[in-house]
Amino acid sequence: MASASNVPKPRTLKKWTAEFKWLEIRENRMYCRLCTKWQKKLASCRNYSDAFITKGSNNWQRSAVNEHNTSAMHSDANGHENREILGDQFRKHVVHTIPEDNPLKQCFARMSENERHMLVRSFEVAYYLAKKGRPYSDFPELIELEKMHGVKFLSSYGHRNACKEFIHFISVTIFNENVKNKLLRANFVSVLCDGSTDSSIVEKELIYVIFVDPDTFVPTCSFFSLKEPISQDAAGIKQAIEESFQQKGLCDTLEKNGVPILRWCSHKTLGWSVG
Ligand SMILES: [Zn+2]
């Protein structure tokens, strides 16, 4: 058994370096490859210690190596390393459009693998509920089930309101990928709308777009927006459509490529041109 000052046998050291990939042994001292690499970022750490960095440790006990391995500083170094690896493959794609100083981006950058895993599971559960037309109130129970399967969740993510937010972001992403990005490249866009009253008997306009998919050349009809028009006449509905295009950042598309809009209402058809 190694004592604090006695260097263990080569066989033991070999075992240690195999187990702790970060461990480097030079001139009878132990160094951490990761903490050395990220020293500048770690220097402001509350429990910063240079034992495995500049000085090198000569505390030749396995418990000391273990202690460094589980220290907050070392897990920070691990985090920096993982983010660097992930940065090229994944993180850049996901967050490249968010400004550097955005709190969301900083939060995402600090996320551990576990937290990312938890978020992915939450989004999957929310997507399932939306797809199956289930109520938000099913969400907490399904999260409990995920917990039984070993996924660790933060309590703030298990609420039905969280489910609502997840579904909102999923819908924005799906809309941007499947509708907005294609509409921006489509040569012509037709807009359909029809009225419907919700549970509070407020008249709503369901707005759909029809366009030829620029990638597959298949005519496509997609849900676009649900709006509450100021009035039920042509002017009110036209305004609702224009507002919905504005809100989705597509007003140029409507102005340049819009074709006559038709509204079917019981037995009559109202039509006007916006082009
Ligand atoms: Zn370390």
Commentary on this structure:
The model is unreliable at 263-275 (pLDDT under 50). The chain has a 5-stranded mixed sheet with strand order 5-4-3-6-7. The chain has helices spanning 10-19, 33-37, 39-42, 62-70, 72-95, 103-110, 113-132, 139-148, 160-183, 234-247, 251-257; strands at 23-26, 29-32, 190-197, 203-212, 219-227, 261-265, 268-272. It has 275 residues and is of the alpha+beta class. It folds into 3 domains: 4-71, no CATH class; 87-178, no CATH class; 187-266, no CATH class. The radius of gyration is 29 Å and the shape is elongated. It has 11 helices and 7 strands.
Short description:
The chain has 275 residues and is α+β, with helices and mostly antiparallel strands. The protein has eleven helices and seven strands.
Topology summary:
Layout (H helix, E strand, L loop, with lengths): L9 H10 L3 E4 L2 E4 H5 L1 H4 L19 H9 L1 H24 L7 H8 L2 H20 L6 H10 L11 H24 L6 E8 L5 E10 L6 E9 L6 H14 L3 H7 L3 E5 L2 E5 L3
Parallel strand pairs: 3-6
Antiparallel strand pairs: 1-2, 3-4, 4-5, 6-7
Helix pairs in contact: 5-6, 7-8, 7-9, 10-11
The structure holds zinc ion (ZN).
Zinc ion binds next to helix 2 and helix 5.
